[in-house]
Amino acid sequence: KQEVTQIPAALSVPEGENLVLNCSFTDSAIYNLQWFRQDPGKGLTSLLLIQSSQREQTSGRLNASLDKSSGRSTLYIAASQPGDSATYLCAVGPDYKLSFGAGTTVTVRA
Amino acid sequence: DTAVSQTPKYLVTQMGNDKSIKCEQNLGHDTMYWYKQDSKKFLKIMFSYNNKELIINETVPNRFSPKSPDKAHLNLHINSLELGDSAVYFCASSQEGLGNYGYTFGSGTRLTVV
Question: Which residue of B31, B50, B99 is in closest CB contact with A49?
Fold first, then answer.
């Protein structure tokens, strides 16, 4: 059974600081890994998807890495802004059965 | 237009009642899902449907019965509601091969059983 852990559970940083969010998973036989953002009372928004054959993906200020052998992924958010405040969830695939971590709640202070 | 829409957004009901949550997606995706997010914020897969066919039933009590009349709709009917069913239920859809941004969630239905 796949178990996904996210550390830290919460993070508070001043605006402009870079964010580093960690995700680990127990079964390295994954199909893909996705990072989502969840705002309070809202659904999830897909941020980045890394296929199992890839090592990283980038979108704007976001960069996610994947190390299957060690069962780890890291999401980097550069130059954080108050609008980045949200809960960030890591999930490992396949798509038809994603396993989610409990998330890291990020607060960016203006 | 909302890509994945769920109704209702909030549902408060008494134990023992039967209720339904509806979900519709207008993205043309071929796979739809129901997820449950509990009070500790863990999201767990409940059901996956591909082209109206059930492909994943993740040990969900049979009081929960999904129904997919067509590939754009996946409804969730819950019989004999229990206190432990209180949670936020998310519908989602995806299309294999779309890669990033392919997985789309609805805004959730907050179910409270009293």
Answer: B99
